[in-house]
Every structure is written in C-alpha cells, then in structure tokens.
Design brief:
With 173 residues, the chain is an alpha+beta fold. It has 4 helices and 8 strands; from the N terminus they run ααββαββββαββ.
C-alpha cells in the first residue's frame, strides 16, 4: 500500500466515522500530512457496499476548498449523508463499506475522439447543466456509452450543443 493511498483513504475513513458515529465534523489539524494540507485538487469520494454495489459518490471537478484535506472531508461526509440517490449511511453499515478516493487533474476541453473511458473521466456541459463520469468504471468501455450516461445524468439531449471536457483521475482504495 502506498503512503498516498493510506493518507487519502484513511482521512476519508476518519472523517466518515467521526461524522456518523460521533456527529463530529473533523477540523484540519497540524497533525495531518502536508500532502493533505498543502495541496489543492478536486476529488471524488466513492462508497461501495462490500458486494460492490454503489452506496454514495460525491465530488468536485475543480478544487473548491483551501486544501485537499478539506476537499476530501466535505466530499466524504456528503457521499455518506447527502447523495440524493441513497439514504444517509447508518452506523451499522460502516463495517461493510469500501471507500475509494479519486484525485482529479484539471479538466481540459476536448472532442469525442480525444476520450478513452478507461483513461479519462468526462464532463458534459450545456449552460448550467453538467454531467460527470469518472474514468475506468465497470461496464463502460466505449466513448459512446460514456457520453450517453454523462448526458443522461446532466439532462442534456445528445441532439443539442454541449461542451466536452476530459480529466484524468488517480484512484486510491
């Protein structure tokens, strides 16, 4: 296990357990590694059940906080309690969760031929509507499928004009 992996995922675990078990919102202390307190990056925190089913996923496509510790903290709490597709995580579920943290590169505008669903995540955008899909998701092997799902999530018709952006992500378990 790499140090970075343990830093990101261990922090996400600490945050979720503190929030769910003790109703505590962890502050950013001087005890955290510089990788968390000195770096800014967008990230997604994803929760899966032990059987692989999605349980929550919330993230940012651009950094919105002062540092990665805050970004992971707020996205971890939101993934556990505010994903509109799921009820909030209950304490008895914690032992059956698997957490991953994706650290994103800055998005760049592109064309469909620049996409590769294994390598790049995608953002589609039309006005205020935006759909995001992380890279390397099970079952998504074609650019067409990746775009179809992202457009559906955004409520954008494939027949209307929209912008496409790609980003890379490093996933930590």
């Amino acid at each position: 296990m790499s140090t970075a992996r343990s830093i990101y995922v261990e922090w996400a675990w600490h945050v979720i357990e503190s929030y769910i078990l003790r109703n505590e919102y962890p502050g950013i202390s001087g005890n955290l590694p510089e990788e968390l307190t000195q770096r800014r990056a967008a990230c997604f925190v994803t929760l899966h059940k032990a059987n692989g089913d999605l349980r929550g996923c919330i993230g940012t496509i651009l950094p919105t906080k002062r540092n990665l510790a805050e970004e992971i903290r707020d996205n971890a709490i939101a993934a556990a309690t505010k994903d509109p597709r799921f009820p909030p995580v209950q304490p008895e579920e914690l032992n059956n969760l698997v957490i991953s943290v994706d650290i994103l590169s800055e998005p760049e505008e592109c064309k469909p031929e620049d996409l590769d669903p294994k390598k790049y995540g995608v953002i589609v955008e039309a006005g205020w509507r935006r759909g995001v899909l992380l890279p390397d998701l099970p079952g998504i092997v074609t650019v067409q499928e990746q775009l179809r799902i992202a457009l559906l999530k955004a409520g954008i018709s494939p027949n209307e004009p929209y912008k496409i952006f790609r980003f890379s992500a490093t996933r930590y378990y």
